[in-house]
Amino acid sequence: MEQRTLAVGLLEGVHVRPTRQRVRVLAELMGERDDVTAQELHERLRGRGERLGLATVYRTLGLLADEGVIDALSHRPGELCYRWCGEEHHHHLVCSGCHRVVELLDCELDPWLERISRAHDFVTTGHRLEVSGLCGDCR
Fold it and tell me: Whole-prediction pTM value?
């Protein structure tokens, strides 16, 4: 399926109006292997002749992250990185050198979180794990 068509479907699936700008931002992000900052994505889109403002890219990425369409990663100090991932629960290994991202689909944290939560009279409603380090190519 073409990325723009898939992007429209994803936006409609979370009841977000698929404007031209939103579709282009999401479709571009869907082609990214790892993660990208808003500024990097904006530069890439502008390089392709797209007429989008940087503020539009930031707003779109924020909206998509809030709606759970994309993930916002915080491994760069002072700047979020964005990545389109699958819908299933997962975690990330993120290389601090080249920004390679590996999705970890197996999550064995639930039993540990349940035990810790119970010990502190706490109810866990969700969790996210982002592990930073260096991949084999960057070591």
Answer: 0.76
